[in-house]
Specification:
With 268 residues, the chain is an alpha+beta fold. Helix content is 32%, strand content 28%. Helix 1 packs antiparallel against helix 2 and helix 6 runs parallel beside helix 8. The protein has an eight-stranded mixed beta sheet with strand order 4-3-5-6-7-8-9-10, with helices on both faces. Strands 11-12-14-13 form a four-stranded mixed beta sheet, with helices on both faces. Strands 1-2 form a two-stranded antiparallel sheet. It has two domains: 146 residues, Fructose-1,6-Bisphosphatase, subunit A, domain 1 (Fructose-1,6-Bisphosphatase, Chain A, domain 1, 2-Layer Sandwich), CATH 3.30.540; 107 residues, 3-Layer(aba) Sandwich (D-Maltodextrin-Binding Protein, domain 2).
Length: 268
Amino acid sequence: MDQFNSKNYSIYANFLNKLAKDLTRYYYSKLNRTFKVSNKLKGKGYDPVTTSDKAFEKFIRSKINNKFSNHQVIGEEFGHKKSKSNFTWVIDPIDGTRSFVIGNPTWSNLISLNYKDKPILGLANFPVLKKHYLNYSDKIAYVFENGKRKKISVNKKATFKDVKVSAAFHGWLSLNKQKKIPKILKLMQFPCSDALSYSHLAEGRVDIVIQCSNKIWDIHPLIPIVKAAGGYISTWDNKDAINAGNILVSSNKAIHNKFLKLLKPVSK
């Protein structure tokens, strides 16, 4: 089977929809309490990990293993479980750990299902906000909130003149490099909240999201959601976002191309 059988979308989407609810329940029953924080970079910067990150990932892995035991799994905290399956689950147990540590509600659980390394389904679950985003095919994505689901779509009519830009460099882009993109800096009107910004673009609330140094677990779960909602996504040098790294997401092709040009001085 060279291509993913689209008839199977619902099997995996329904699994992820239930998992989102299970993760929110798990957070409130087990993890909404004191946790320990350590710094992965130890003196070379700040990249926090908490005991909750590890607990979430173990929980997600157990759910996947119970249902799809032969599938591969790649997680931020516990590495790669390999098999001969064409299916791989990619997990970021807490995307936005910095937000989690200080009590901002914008952190999420991110999970993608990849077929032959290509993300086909994505879940972005926000336990504190009590909502989650999930695509059900390559053309349909929903936000689930207050017991209801609503189909989402990017703002296809966005123009460069009125563009809403959410961007952050989180210390990854040096000040000297930032000076090379003054137009981008001027356009950064809205705060960037990790996966929530990508989700807001898919919902039509913002038109451009620019982020630095995404790992595969940061971006793979968002790729299918953004694409199903009609968005454009690539690296800053216009490569496939599957490669991760510096990411640009846009609500239409015209402004995507415009921002690729603006980012050119720092996209090498």
